[in-house]
Amino acid sequence: MNYHFVFKLLIISLLNSVTFAITCNDVTTNLKEKYNLEDGIICGEAKNEPISLEIYNNGQELTEIPSYIFSITSLKELTIVNHKIESIPSQIKKLKNLETL
């Protein structure tokens, strides 16, 4: 029996069954509580699909991307509007699913 082939199939199967642990509810709750972003958050997701996140200025201006965002490995799109963010930290590399910034 080719155990190498069986192992590859097992890994592929596991990767296909992975669900994203962080939900939009988690994201909005965290950003509202830790960063006082009350009304400026729009988060979208479909079951087992990456997250799209938009953060608008609601009077609480951000000067940096909240560190919590770098833990959202399922983040596909990130839009930050009307804030004073001047640089993108190297932690952005953690977001392997990010397609749009």
UniProtKB/TrEMBL annotation:
The family database entries (InterPro entries) matched by this protein are listed as: LRR_dom_sf
Keywords from UniProt, A to Z, are: Signal
Among SUPFAM superfamilies, the record links this protein to: L domain-like
Query: How far does the signal peptide extend, from start to end residue?
Result: 1-21
What is the name listed in the Swiss-Prot or TrEMBL entry for this protein? L domain-like protein
Per the UniProt entry, what species is this protein from, by scientific name?
Anaeromyces robustus
Query: Taxonomic lineage of this organism?
Result: Eukaryota, Fungi, Fungi incertae sedis, Chytridiomycota, Chytridiomycota incertae sedis
